[in-house]
């Protein structure tokens, strides 16, 4: 069987190329998709609120960063619509708090959630953890 796996099968490569081409041309656009270029960062972060200073509420793992937002993995079901501050200290080398609005939460495993946050510089209100209507 190992010999069989070592042999190249051009039809499998063609199938893969066709599938990738199909995915590139699909018209299904995710409404939460960010338009800016994403950069893979793979770093630990905290999410919190401003309550007399920064108070961390959740730990997470940042997977990507763009000018529009950030992708995270967490062990908590973070509330949709909440405005939280993400601390990018592990990426920036110093405490760097940026406000995000939680716009996407999807359960991946029993205790793992994919979270998408859009940067919310205008909507950030240190006294409020929810978006204003």
Q: Key features?
A:
six-stranded antiparallel barrel; alpha+beta; 3 helices; 133 residues; elongated; disordered C terminus; 42% strand
Explain what the structure shows.
The protein has three helices and six strands. By secondary structure, it is of the alpha+beta class. The longest helix has 16 residues, at 10-25. The chain starts with a helix and ends in a 14-residue tail after the last strand.
β-strand number: 6
Q: Tell me roughly what share of residues is in helical segments.
A: 10-25%
* Shape designation: elongated
Q: What's the alpha carbon Rg, rounded to whole Å?
A: 19 Å
Amount of beta strand: 35-45%
Computed structural class: alpha+beta
Q: How would you write the strand order of the largest sheet?
A: 1-2-3-6-5-4
Mean pLDDT: 79
- Give the distance, in angstroms, between the N- and C-terminal Cα atoms: 62 Å
Number of distinct helices: 3
Which helices and strands appear, and what pairs or packs with what?
Elements: H1 2-6, H2 10-25, E1 39-50, E2 54-65, E3 69-74, E4 83-87, H3 89-92, E5 97-109, E6 112-119
Antiparallel strand pairs: 1-2, 1-4, 2-3, 3-6, 4-5, 5-6
Short description:
The protein has helices at 2-6, 10-25, 89-92, and strands at residues 39-50, 54-65, 69-74, 83-87, 97-109, 112-119.
